What does this fold into?
Amino acid sequence: MTTEKMKKEFFGTNGVRGVVGSEMTPALALTIGLALGSMRPGRIAIGRDTRTSGPALLRALAAGLMAAGCDTVDYGILPTPALQLLVRGSYAAGAVITASHNPPEYNGVKVIEPDGTEMGDEETLVLEARMRSAHEFTQPWDKVGSAIERAGGPDEYVRAIGSAFPAGIGEGLTVVIDPGSGAACDTTPAILRRLGCRVFSLNDRMDGYFPGRLPEPSPEGLAALSRMVTVTGAAFGVAHDGDADRAVFIDNEGHFVEENAEFALIADHLTSQEKGVIVTPVSTSRLLEWVAEKNGCRVVYTPVGSIYVARTMRERIDAGEKVVFGGEGNGGLIYPGHQFCRDGGMTAAMMVALLATRKTTLSAALGTLPTYTMRKEKFHVHDPEELIARLAEAFQGEAPDLTDGVRINRSDTWALVRPSGTEPLVRIFVESKTREAGEEIYQDILALMDPSSV
Ligand code: MG
It folds into this structure.
């Protein structure tokens, strides 16, 4: 089953990622290019975010793809979801040079399948196997592929999103955009202007040094956006991570909107119009269950990682089920009628539609949601897998969800313990109405952990 997590050597949950010059090098990008080119022969769409190392890594990747016999079409700088949209149905594969939300010194590669989704575990393992003997895929002189540079990719993306909403739906709304010098500097302002919004922006010059804030759209980094929202009297502020597959919000009062609340609010908007399933990882807030129950829908859980959400959505739709929405509690939301990947530009547009439809302010809309407290801790342990097995056994009587780690559900609280994929540690999430209400389940878990590891 594709939603089961598998151990990979180079690739994490969202592609290859590492510090440029040590972990992420042009040699590695070239190797990925050769392996991918041999695996998905044909025309490959490529692009990148705004990082300083992007041009070097993109050209190395392209060199590998061409050496393996593929023709490359380079769209330059664009959001990851824009490249995913362009790839779908038109290319043998795609690849984006990006490190998403990571600091400027990082970069990486996300591989896109012909249907526009990120490559899943099984195929990634095949790709990794090919990377180990990549030199074998170098083609002779008359089989080498070509390099084409193509403009207009971002415009196509803007048009696709703009045409998904009624014309002028954003008229009368002022919005402030903080693309954080990343890949959506041009696209999200263009999308929201197209919807009729009055748009202000900051950190809107593409810059791989990220001078205004780091690529992660954290509450601390968005202080300037918050001020600008208040000063301009905007309906909301929206910010992206470096490759703009995620969107996070500042409400009309200048407050950061917790991403699970954002997810729940948009889920409420969509499931009040259409009944079906909401797909999300086991780490997501119970707010989604609240929304689903209210609107006669159901939540389906997956392992943590957007590819598991996207693939589960596809599998269930293929099986004839109605899937309305999916996403993660980090502002990465997936609209099945649009495409099967997280899309920050689409999420910004959806917020406009939500406010226009509900004729309310964002802070008032947030006030309709119940409030929960999420506690997140991490602990170094000698053997995370052993601990997870022990917890699953100990909580057997409570029928724990073993989709990813152990999730224990109680009437007023839930907890998730899951191993980190890369380090010898476990992460513990506890959500409840108040922190005190979650204390009992938290203590129950701690009692079962090896005292020397806590
Ligand atoms: Mg991202």
Remarks:
- The CA atoms of residues 12 and 421 lie 8 Å apart.
- The chain has 14 helices and 19 strands.
- Residues 100-101, 241, 243, 245-246 surround magnesium ion (CB under 6 Å).
